[in-house]
Design goal:
19 helices; alpha+beta; 4 domains; disordered C terminus; 694 residues; Immunoglobulin-like; 6-stranded mixed sheet; disordered N terminus
Length: 694
């Protein structure tokens, strides 16, 4: 999500507003939209390309389906298992659920849609494929289920986390539930219910272009603490004037948290007071219960409706003013333009919030209606960004003239389906739905399964040679079982992500668990960890997650500002943990290339949420200038904010930056930093990282 400072940058940056054809792979026209219905009732929306006769379809939720293997068998598995022994006697009961999903029109549906398109738009109209969908930051693929979200019923659930961005790409779900959870799922799957307890939500964003007009946009949000207090009070009165008790409750919440946030977070600007006032309205209505006790109201969601009221209030006070110098007869286009500016405003202060699901009691054995869960998830509202982010932005006075522009509107798009719609395809297929007794003689031999995490497949290409898993099983009699397996890119290509070892009990009475340890071979022949620990394994399967994860860091700057200060290059210098060691990466932004935004993918330790960074500037006459280190968590976007002393050419300050640049060190060939040059220890508390973990 973008900060308040980012709002101005986006409104003022010609590269965004003018939207050259290179900015987006598809330039979709919001004014040229069709809605066609296939013979099976599937309703499909298409957008015409802004510069050609190509049409792109927005995939409907009905296009979500189970993926299939080459032999046509759906990739779905629901196994109920039990043993002759009771659980308290060492037996086991429950179920495994594992399936893969994809979306997109079938070849037959594409042909039918092309025929309908030709009849509607003419022979030149070409069905070019789906709309280019982007996954928003965070988790874009979610499972909505009362059973699978209950940790008492579900011992483990793993998903691929990211919604498939293209047709044919897959999303995976694997879960292990206990006996009660198995019966609940089985009941919703098989008992002719209208909906099952498992729903799938895919979150996306896509961009359409709107032709705007000549006009003027004025923002003045640089309000004092007192002004913000007054606006918040006026809005509280307006919303709750007819309910004195709710008004008093909201005011108590407002005053209590205003003081806490000012004392603990340094909150004091007027803009934050207005947002806190909106939180107080929801609190009075019972939508943010408990926030007043935690002292952290930012963790609780508020509705988009209230954010619109903030926007409307600012507009009514002419703090936000949008004027047009020419009439726009197209009301729909004007609505889209205004919606685009509201979206910029919203993204500056808030991000989507999803509700927590209540646990299902084993005693009541009830099935919660999944459709309500979906509704709550889709309408979870927004939560404010941290107070640190909100209060770090100043100078909110801007006026800009709008020439005739092609304005990009980023729209959120969600596909939701229920597993009941696909379960009928597999319910009678013994390869997909079955029940087994683990005391069957077949289980005198047991398979030990290791599944490579989906994310690891991508990392293999750049960072990892292979992973080796050693397994040992102590037998009650005879020799112990020991074996190993290796997963490499070659094995992935030929056999897939699953590696299996077969264990023969040989009369072993102690077959409850085995042990395994995984060691990763890194580029350059380094093994990590050097001495891995033995872990207890699960008979169903073990998912192998790599010790590192990828993240893409975006670095942006105001090119004109840098030029005016005689700066030829700005470099974002990063420090973070990788394989337990501090490493450094540099992301340069060269002014002469006229690219205000650059990005680079890095790999950090899996348990690391943040990094340290600083700006290094190349000045035409002063050479290198190095700013102070800072830290950031859960945010992969950095904007080059230049300090005022540098802009004002404060000689003492610039000399400090020059000296800092003189003692810059070079990292090793793989980015390693020498122990005496490490700086992450200085941010241990801020980053909340396991700095001492090696």
């Amino acid at each position: 999500m973008k900060s308040v400072h980012s709002l101005w940058r986006h409104l003022l940056c010609a590269g965004i507003l003018l939207c050259s054809s290179s900015t987006f792979a598809q330039r979709l026209s919001s004014e040229n939209k069709l809605e066609l219905v296939l013979d099976n009732g599937m309703d499909i929306v298409l957008f015409k390309g802004a510069d050609n006769d190509n049409y792109y379809y927005l995939p409907p939720a009905q296009s979500i389906r189970l993926s299939q293997k080459e032999d046509g068998v759906p990739e779905f598995l629901f196994v109920n298992f039990t043993t002759e022994k009771r659980v308290e006697q060492g037996g086991s009961q429950g179920a495994l659920l594992h399936f893969l999903l994809e979306w997109g029109l079938t070849p037959e549906q594409m042909k039918e849609l092309q025929l309908l398109l030709t009849r509607k738009a003419g022979r030149k109209a070409v069905l070019a494929g789906p709309v280019e969908l982007n996954t928003p930051a965070g988790e874009s693929f979610r499972i909505v289920s009362s059973v699978l979200s209950d940790k008492k019923l579900t011992s483990s659930m793993v998903t691929s986390g990211m919604a498939p961005p293209m047709p044919g790409n897959k999303a995976a779900v694997a879960a292990h539930v206990d006996a009660i959870g198995a019966q609940l799922l089985d009941a919703t799957f098989k008992k002719s219910r209208s909906i099952s307890d498992v729903s799938i939500v895919l979150d996306y964003e896509y961009v359409v272009m709107v032709n705007a007009a000549r006009g003027r946009l004025t923002y003045n949000l640089d309000i004092t603490h007192t002004q913000g207090d007054g606006i918040a009070y006026d809005m509280l009165k307006k919303e709750l004037d007819q309910e004195p008790q709710l008004f008093q409750s909201a005011m108590d919440f407002y005053e209590k948290n205003k003081k806490k946030l000012r004392d603990e977070c340094g909150v004091g600007d007027g803009l934050t007071n207005v947002l806190l006032g909106m939180q107080a309205i929801d609190f009075a209505a019972g939508n943010t219960s408990g926030a007043g006790d935690t002292g952290n109201p930012w963790e609780y969601g508020i509705s988009e409706e209230l954010m619109r009221k903030v926007y409307d209030e600012f507009s009514s006070r002419e703090m936000i003013k949008l004027e047009w110098e020419e009439n726009i007869a197209d009301d729909e286009r004007l609505k889209n333009i205004r919606e685009a500016f509201f979206n910029f405003f919203l993204s500056a202060f808030a991000e989507p919030a999803y509700p927590e699901f209540a646990e299902v009691s084993k005693d009541d054995f009830a099935i919660k209606p999944a459709d309500e869960s979906i509704k709550n998830s889709a309408q979870g509202g927004y939560k404010f960004k941290s107070c640190t982010k909100l209060t770090s932005n100043r100078s909110l006075k801007k006026t800009m003239l709008l020439e005739k522009i092609s304005l990009p509107i980023r729209r959120r798009y969600q596909m939701t389906t229920n597993l009941a719609s696909t379960y009928d395809q597999v319910k009678d297929n013994p390869n997909c739905v079955l029940s087994i007794n683990l005391n069957d003689p077949f289980f005198e031999h047991r398979d030990i399964n290791f599944i490579l995490d989906l994310e690891a497949m991508d990392i293999f290409k750049e960072e990892i040679n292979y992973v080796t898993v050693n397994v040992r099983k102590k037998r009650s009699t005879g020799r112990n079982f020991e074996d190993h397996t290796t997963i490499s890119p070659e094995i992935l290509a030929s056999k897939g992500r699953l590696a299996t070892l077969t264990y023969s009990r040989e009369g072993d009475k102690n077959a409850d668990y085995y042990e395994y340890k995984a060691q990763w071979s890194l580029r350059g022949g380094v093994l990590y960890p050097v001495d891995p620990l033995w872990q207890k394994g699960d008979w169903q399967s073990v998912t192998l997650a790599p010790p590192i994860k990828p993240r893409t860091i975006e670095f942006e700057a105001d090119i004109d500002e840098l030029k005016s200060l005689n700066i030829t290059r700005a470099t974002l210098q990063l420090r973070y943990k990788k394989y337990g060691q501090e490493v450094e990466t540099n992301i340069p932004l060269t002014i002469s290339k006229n690219q205000p935004l650059v990005s680079k993918r890095i790999f950090t330790d899996r348990d690391q949420t943040g990094y340290a960074y600083r700006l290094v500037l190349n000045h035409k006459t002063k050479g290198k200038l190095a700013l102070d280190w800072d830290a950031r968590i859960n945010d992969d976007y950095v904007f080059a904010i230049l300090p005022d002393p540098l802009k004002n050419e404060d000689r003492e300050f610039i000399e400090k930056l020059e000296k800092a640049a003189e003692i810059m060190i070079e990292s090793g060939p793989n980015g390693e930093v020498r122990p005496q040059d490490r700086i992450l220890d200085n941010f241990k508390e801020t980053l909340k990282m396991f700095i001492d973990k090696q």
